[in-house]
């Protein structure tokens, strides 16, 4: 009896990353690590939050002993907010960050970002969303103008591919087999650009001179 393996769903997660005020000067260095780790930086902005805004962002931590120090630290200077995207972005970003306490991170995850750039439990250099739902909430907080559309997955993804991608791709691959170019990848890329069904068409108006 043949076992049927389900097709993996097409799903790209987004998560929020913050470069905190005390390590903003390491922005380019940290971004390079992020990109080399397979993330795409979808959105990015530098801003400075007020203590009130920090309180709202960390509302779930309200009432804890460290809360006043946390809001003071996060509002002490500019920070960099980024929306990161990749497969399993939330879990991969948390893994790259390491433990929230930078002292612990240096002992157990010495190559993690918090081990490298953080100082202690409070000043741990970077922030990452804990879950997909918290990522959506935090992204809306830092990027209120961004519209987070649901990303197709499962049957919706297959329907999308069948309707918008496969017909053009099949035609391109058929043409590729007939042409047999020396550089098939470049040829196919050029063909897809030329035959993109959604490519804007320029209409030339012919005017008659009187």
From TrEMBL:
Keywords assigned: Cell projection, Cilium, Cytoplasm, Cytoskeleton, Developmental protein, Differentiation, Flagellum, Hydrolase, Kinase, Spermatogenesis, Transferase
Subcellular location: Cytoplasm, Cytoskeleton, Flagellum axoneme
GO BP: any one term: UTP biosynthetic process
SMART domains, alphabetized: NDK (SM00562)
Taxonomy, superkingdom: Eukaryota
GO molecular function list: hydrolase activity; nucleoside diphosphate kinase activity
Residues of the Nucleoside diphosphate kinase-like domain: 12-150
Pfam families given in the database record: Dpy-30 (PF05186), NDK (PF00334)
Record keyword Kinase present: yes
Record flagged with keyword Kinase: yes
Entry-linked InterPro entries: Dpy-30_motif, NDK-like_dom, NDK-like_dom_sf, NDK_H5, Nucleoside_diP_kinase
CDD domains from the UniProt entry: DD_NDKH5-like (cd22970), NDPk5 (cd04418)
Similarity-based family: Belongs to the NDK family.
Subunit structure as annotated in this protein's UniProt entry: Component of the axonemal radial spoke complex 1 (RS1), at least composed of spoke head proteins RSPH1, RSPH3, RSPH9 and the cilia-specific component RSPH4A or sperm-specific component RSPH6A, spoke stalk proteins RSPH14, DNAJB13, DYDC1, ROPN1L and NME5, and the anchor protein IQUB. Interacts with IQUB.
Protein name: Nucleoside diphosphate kinase homolog 5
């Amino acid at each position: 009896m043949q076992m049927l393996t389900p097709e993996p769903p097409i799903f790209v997660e987004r998560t929020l990353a913050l470069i905190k005020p005390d390590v903003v000067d390491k922005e380019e260095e940290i971004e390079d690590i992020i990109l080399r780790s397979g993330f795409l930086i979808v959105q990015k902005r530098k801003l400075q939050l007020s203590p009130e805004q920090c309180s709202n962002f960390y509302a779930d931590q309200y009432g804890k002993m460290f809360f006043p120090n946390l809001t003071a630290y996060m509002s002490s200077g500019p920070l960099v907010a980024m929306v990161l995207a990749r497969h399993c972005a939330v879990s991969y970003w948390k893994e790259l960050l390491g433990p929230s306490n930078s002292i612990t991170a240096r002992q157990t995850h010495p190559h993690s970002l918090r081990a490298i750039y953080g100082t202690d439990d409070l000043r741990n250099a970077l922030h990452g969303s804990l879950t997909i739902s918290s990522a959506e909430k935090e992204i809306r907080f830092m990027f209120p103008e961004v519209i987070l559309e649901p990303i197709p997955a499962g049957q919706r993804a297959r329907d999308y591919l069948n309707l918008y991608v496969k017909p053009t791709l099949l035609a391109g691959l058929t043409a590729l087999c007939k042409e047999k170019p020396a550089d098939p990848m470049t040829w196919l890329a050029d063909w897809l650009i030329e035959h993109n069904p959604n490519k804007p068409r320029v209409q030339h108006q012919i005017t008659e001179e009187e």
